[in-house]
Amino acid sequence: MIDGPRLVPLSGERANALVVLVHGYGSNGDDLISLAAMIQPALPAAAFVAPNAPSIIPNMANAHQWWPIETFSAAERAAGAAMAAPELDSFLSRELEAHGLPDERLLLVGFSQGTMMALHVGLRRTRPVAGIIGISGMLVAPDTLEAEIRSRPPVLLIHGTADDVVPFRSLQLARDALSAADVPVATHVSAGVGHSVDQDGLAAATEFAARVLA
Q1: What is the radius of gyration, based on Cα positions, of the chain?
Q2: Residues facing residue 188 across a β-bridge
Q3: Residue 31 burial (CB count, 10 A)
Q4: Which of 61, 76, 112, 190 could staple 24 via S-S, CB 3.0–4.6 A?
Q5: CA angle at residue 5 from 27 to 44, to 5 degrees?
Q6: H or E element in which residue 152 lies
């Protein structure tokens, strides 16, 4: 079963919300838990966890992947996300049960490949989560979303205009597909930012997190 680094609530009390951070290709939970530490002051009663993806990239130190990337084709993304989704979905359910929390107290935060996973899984859970934040990612298999979507939580997409890994146009494509599926979606454009998140993007994420978990 997947697991990863955690942050307990700053309040010192039982968590009233859960934030799950889903890392990108070639990264790990330790990388994203540092992002959690920057959001945590705005959510002092929330618990944070950043699970490591189940697959290790060969010949790379502590580099995880939700699915192998070879061609970066749409078909590969769709098959990979579908393959990895059940394990992440089960992890979310276990964590909510462990904390005694309902889905509406769960916030998903994804980066790059982690955004693809957060959107794919979060929109297919029966009960809507509090929200989904997708940073520098894209929506996998938009053509099947209408048939497979089961809930419509609010979504915030953050993307840098200078991203040379996941093209910036992915933001508009995801926004349009989500809007067409009646998902409430907001965007934050980070001018001149590459495959990363800057302080303005982090501020937008923090504001969104505080609002949906108020």
Answers
A1: 16
A2: 158
A3: 18
A4: 112
A5: 115
A6: none
Per-residue pLDDT tens digits for 117-176: 999 999 999 999 999 999 999 999 999 999 999 999 999 999 999 999 999 999 999 999
CA distances to 65, 154, 186, 191 from 159, rounded to whole Å, are: 21, 17, 12, 9
Q: Apex CA 197: angle with CA 83 and CA 14, to 5°?
A: 70
- Model-level pTM? 0.97
Residues 136, 111 contacting (CB under 8 angstroms) = yes
Query: Measured between alpha carbons, how far is 26 from 18 in angstroms, rounded to an integer?
Result: 24
**Terminal alpha carbon distance of the chain:** 31
Structure tokens that stand for 131 in this block: 């929200």
Helices (H), 29-168: 29-39, 74-99, 113-122, 142-148
C-alpha span between 138 and 158 (Å, rounded) = 10
Name the 3-class secondary structure at 211. helix
Residue keyed to tokens 């070879």:
70
- The topology (CATH level 3) of 6-212 is Rossmann fold (3.40.50)
Q: Quick one: DSSP state of residue 17?
A: E
85: its two tokens: 């989704």
Extract the tokens encoding 144.
Answer: 């099947």
pLDDT in tens, 32-55: 999 999 999 999 999 999 999 999
The letter for the amino acid at 104 is E
